[in-house]
Every structure is written in structure tokens, then in C-alpha cells.
Amino acid sequence: MSPLSALESSMITSLEARKRLGVPRYDADIVAPDHAGDFFSNDYLSIGKIPHIRKSFVDALSRTPFLFGSTGSRAISGSTSHHVELEEYFVEQFEAEKAMVFNSGYMCNLTFFGYAPQEGDVILYDEFIHASIHDGFRISRAKDHAFAFSHNSVPDFESKLKQILHDYPGIPSGLSTLFIVIESVYSMEGDFSPMEEIITLVEKYVPSKSAHIVVDEAHSLGLYGPGGKGLLREWGLEKRVHSVIFPFTKAVNFIGCVMTTTPTIYQYLSNYGRSWLFTTSLPHVDLVGIKFCFEAIQTQEADQLRKNIKDLSHFFVKLFLESTYDIPKDILSIVNPESKDLHARGLIAPVFPIYTPQPLALQHYLNKLGYAAKGLAHPGVPKGTERIRVVIHGGNTDVQIRQFVKSLPGVGVESSRSDYHHPIKGDGGRARELAQVVERCTRPGVRAQL
Fold this sequence. Notes:
Elements: H1 6-21, H2 51-63, H3 81-94, E1 98-102, H4 105-115, E2 122-126, H5 131-138, E3 146-149, H6 154-167, E4 178-183, H7 195-205, E5 211-216, H8 231-234, E6 243-247, E7 257-261, H9 263-272, H10 274-277, H11 284-296, H12 300-323, E8 333-334, H13 337-340, E9 351-355, H14 359-368, E10 375-376, E11 387-391, H15 398-417, H16 428-441
Parallel strand pairs: 2-3, 2-4, 4-5, 5-6
Antiparallel strand pairs: 1-7, 6-7, 8-9, 9-11, 10-11
Helix pairs in contact: 1-16, 2-11, 4-5, 6-7, 12-15, 14-15
């Protein structure tokens, strides 16, 4: 084996620091077992595990005249009639002015937030928005004028909104734009945004000419609304926002993303969005798959799967609280149902963070039992909220949930008997080392998202 280069030595030092500090590593070539049941993927409806849907998709592929690569970016040869037809399909599906298809949700967020804001514009965003949106901010002309409000806090949103209008007179005068950025359902907490309250405040304070509300529906598409078309449509708010991002990698269980927006924004990003311009467009097989899977989430079978998710999610919460009643909450706990349901209007999201001071120990324990658990620790999540992220699926069963919940108290009891040592408590050197890891992993305000 050849000696390590200077670059590799620096990388090894960083990787070893993660291990010493208890920060999870996510080596891409390690495959976690999942034979005990799926409680961790984003395939909410379990579409990928339904045999007849898989067969129908293969049949659809056999009938398409084009199957392989698009041969270029959308700016060259990759904007085929099939790409345009798919965008027109989504214009009809979402009753939108214009729809723009991207290779992924990440690419959509990087392109829109990186290139849509103009000089003098301002961004106000929920502190828990997806990391890819932050990556868009970093290359945006508004990167120094982006402000966070406390997660789902309507009072803090209103306060920050008023302050921005005071500090940036171009917005109330109609010369600049204020972008408001939220997610309908947040992927790590599994809680709902107070969308209507936020929209109402924007309509109250910001001239319509200067407001642009952007909603990411990654974790609500397929789960809520008529035909699973998202939480905005569930609550009748779709006509009161400006751009909506619909990644297809969660409940739709495919690849790609569509953003509904205005014709002018579509044209502008087509010409100035470098991350869109210089990326080879989706191959034809993906165009077929996107439409196929999107139609699959609108069937009666999908309606039943959505009902399953709702019923099983309530069952999981009840069973978890009963099974972990005697375990100290600082050892093993679930998100407070009251805060999770605060803005839910009777709905429930199938995402449940299970908090534990030892996420890696819980991960390894569950991995041995056949679950594909992943521990999430600081800096990926705030200190004191270390967790694993559990997801209930339409294809889960009562038996699977009982077995999974039954396994949790075992690790909780073992943890309560041991002395938990916080990786930086009482150790200035380790604290400095952790700070360096944080700096390498993320910038302030950027959280791990899925």
C-alpha cells in the first residue's frame, strides 16, 4: 500500500476525530441490514416493495420508444420533447403557471436559491430548513442578507419580518423582493409548519409585488392532499404561495424534482441557473419513472396506504409511550406529541425522532437486530437532541411495530445503568477538537436533513 499523501493524511485526521468525539460516520460502502422491517427509509408509502407496481413499471418501460440518456444538458441537446411534455404534465397536475423539472431536490434548491434572488433581495427562512437550501444561499447574491426565524415560531417570524421591512426600505417600496422559505413538514422533527399563519402575515405586511413565498413539500408530497399532492392542497393554500418544490425521492420513491413557479422565473433560471445549465438532463428512463410513480401515489391503493400510515403512526406512539414508561426521559424518549401536533390540524407525520444521549450505541444495537438505524449526533443535530429517526410506512404491520418497539427498552435499560460521558464535558481539548469537526462538517445554522 502506497504512503498516504498530504491530502489523505489530513482527511484521515478528520475521520479519526469524528470517531473519538462520537460523531457518526456515514461511509457510503457500508450497507446496513434491514431484514427486520423498514423503519428508516423515506419510501413512506412502501411503493418500492409492491410487486405489481414494479411489474407495471417494467411493462411501461418496454413500451417507451426512448429509454437511455438525454445526450446533453437542457441548454444543448437534452431539452427533448419528452422533458417538455413532463413539465407540461405537471403544470396540469398542479394547476400551475409553469413547472421546471430538475435532476434532484438538491439540484432544485441549489439552482433556485443560488440564482433567483437578485441584488438587494432578502431571505427570511425557518431555522430548520434543508441543508441544500443553505447551499443555495451560499452562492446567492442575497447570502449576506439571509435571516433565520425560530423553528415554527409565528411570533418570531413576525418580529423578524417587521425588522427586515424597517432595515430594507426597498422591500416596502416595491424595489426588492423578500423571499420567505419554509417546509410544509420538517424531515427531522416530523412536525408541521404553521403555513397559513406565516402566509397571512406576509400578506398583511409585505406588498404583493415584493413577496415571494417558497414552500418545500419534500416530506408531504404523497402523504397529504387530494391524490397525495401535498399539504398546501390539503389546507387549500396552494394559490397563496409563489414557488413550490416537489422532490420525488420520498413518498414518490423515484429520482428528480419539479418546481412550480412563474414563467419568468422558469426563463431566468433556464438562462442563469448554472447548476441546471451545466448538468446533463434526466435520461428518458427517469422521465418515464417519474410520471409512473407520481400516478401511482394517486391511486385508491395509495389512499389505503396513506390511511395505514396514519393508523400505524398513532399505534406506534401509543406503544412507544407504554413500553418506555419506566425509562428515564434523558435516556430514551420520543418527541413531545403536543409540540409535534401543534400545527398539524389533526394530521400526523410518520417521522419520529427518538432521543438518546447515545445514538451510536442505539444504532449498533438495532443494526444487530436487523434494522437499518442511523445515529444522528451533533453537529448534524443540535446538542442535547441526539437521536435516531424512525419512519412509519404504509407497508409496515402491527407485528413489525410491536417487535421494533419491544426491542427499544433493552438498550434504554442498559444505557441507564452506565455512566454516559458527554464527549466534550469537562475536557477543553476535546471541546476544541469538536469545534474543528463542526467547522469541517457544516456551517452555523445548517442541520442534517434527509
